[in-house]
Amino acid sequence: MYGCEAWTISKQIQNKLEATEMWFLRRMLRIPWTAKKTNERVLNEANKRRSLIRIIRKRQATFLGHVMRRGKLEHLVTTGKFEGKRSRGRQREKIMDGLATWLGPGKVSDIPAAVKDRDLWRDMIANAYKQGTCDDDQKKKNLYMKVLWYIKLETPKDNYQKSRFWVLQY
Prior knowledge:
The chain has helices at 11-28, 39-46, 52-70, 73-79, 95-103, 111-115, 118-131, 137-152, 160-168. It is an all-alpha fold. The radius of gyration is 19 Å and the shape is elongated. This is UDP-glucuronosyltransferase 2a1-like.
């Protein structure tokens, strides 16, 4: 997983990573590949959940926060705001696009505002890591709306704990 912070993970790559994770788990449990056991059964035997993709996304989000707060050349490359012509055809998926889908149903343009506040960014990463890659869009949408409320809220220090509570509560 060296350098996974810079990977762009498409659906195909995600499937390969999940298959590799299951292969590792089967090898550790000494389950032969000829055994007819489903992945869910293997995960139950090991008392584990799939975590490789979540770990990679968490590392990417942490690294992105660092790069975005720094505001140098890496920031321009990551956001895609450098001058020049776009290439023809379908545009490649960017790291920001993948993280936006992982963090919630928000827009990519909302990420830089959230990154500026470290505590908010850490809470967003922690919540997304806890949820994993769940398909419950309503839950993510509610969390996203609370995060937007927090970003727009400019409170003095005494109300900070109250506003932070709303981000963690989903």
